[in-house]
Amino acid sequence: MTWRLLLPLLTSFLLVWTAIPALSQSEWITEVETQCASCHDIEEVCENLDESESYWRETLDRMVGQWGVDLSEEEIATWARKLTDAPEKLRTGLCP
């Protein structure tokens, strides 16, 4: 692959990567409490923290489709990744 083709691809990747919010553990806990607890008990979120990223993507897509939750595809990807990658960090400060 030539640099002419690779450079736009790399640039796009970096733009998307830097758009992902870099929240601290306490900020993510606050986000989960604010966003998820408006409809769900925190215990329900805690019970599912060990699920896969595809589970969270499907769940978030269903919430958008059935319940009109306002999340972009980028936000769905970010939430799914965070809920998958940091279960212990979230569980420590979030779950009873």
Name a few traits of the molecule:
96 residues, electron transfer activity, heme binding, mainly alpha, 73% helix, Quinohemoprotein amine dehydrogenase alpha subunit haem binding domain-containing protein
Approximate strand percentage: under 5%
How would you characterize the largest beta sheet? none
Helix content: over 70%
Quaternary structure: single chain
- Poorly predicted sequence stretches spanning 5 or more consecutive residues: 9-20
General description of the model:
- This protein has 96 residues and is mostly helical.
- Helices cover 73% and strands 0% of the residues.
- It has six helices and no strands.
- The protein has helices at residues 3-19, 25-35, 42-47, 53-67, 73-85, 87-94.
- α4 packs across α5 (73-85).
- The longest helix is centred in the N-terminal third of the chain and has 17 residues, at 3-19.
- The radius of gyration is 16 Å and the shape is globular.
Question: Topology of this structure?
Answer:
Layout: H1 3-19, H2 25-35, H3 42-47, H4 53-67, H5 73-85, H6 87-94
Helix pairs in contact: 2-6, 4-5
